[in-house]
Amino acid sequence: MCVFCSIVKGDIPSNKLYEDDMVIAFFDINPTSYGHCLVVPKEHCDSFLDCPTKTLDHVFEVAQKLANVLEEKLGCDGINVLTNIHEAAGQSVNHFHVHLIPRYANKDHDS
Ligand code: 5GP
Ligand code: ZN
Hints:
GO terms for molecular function: catalytic activity. It comes from Faecalitalea cylindroides. The chain has about 110 residues and is α+β, with helices and mostly antiparallel strands. The protein has helices at about 5-10, 55-75; strands spanning about 15-20, 25, 35-40, 80, 100-105. Strands 1-2-3-5-4 form a five-stranded antiparallel sheet, with helices on one face. Guanosine-5'-monophosphate (5GP) binds next to loops.
């Protein structure tokens, strides 16, 4: 089973910030910046390329809500919303996920 399926199942602990019946969001274990988190569909798909449209819509709906929360709560100055497809593009976990990476004008918050 893949690492994100294990997180969805609860076999691997995670620092969750959102969950519903289709999606889970948790903080990245190796954050690029303060507040870096991942939005992950509960049902396994390998990447953005094979995620069903309905799931994709919901993942991005949740990503948009959480991006607004991050901006409001963390006071970041910008956010990268991104997904990597395949190893050549930096994908290391082959279970589709969207990164939310808050950015700060004051670089002290970047790790
Ligand atoms: P990718 O490189 O596939 O776009 O992103 C995978 C992300 O998942 C990486 O930023 C990595 O730090 C994160 N990650 C990998 N394993 C775990 C884990 O077990 N728990 C959490 N919270 N994040 C993980
Ligand atoms: Zn999986």
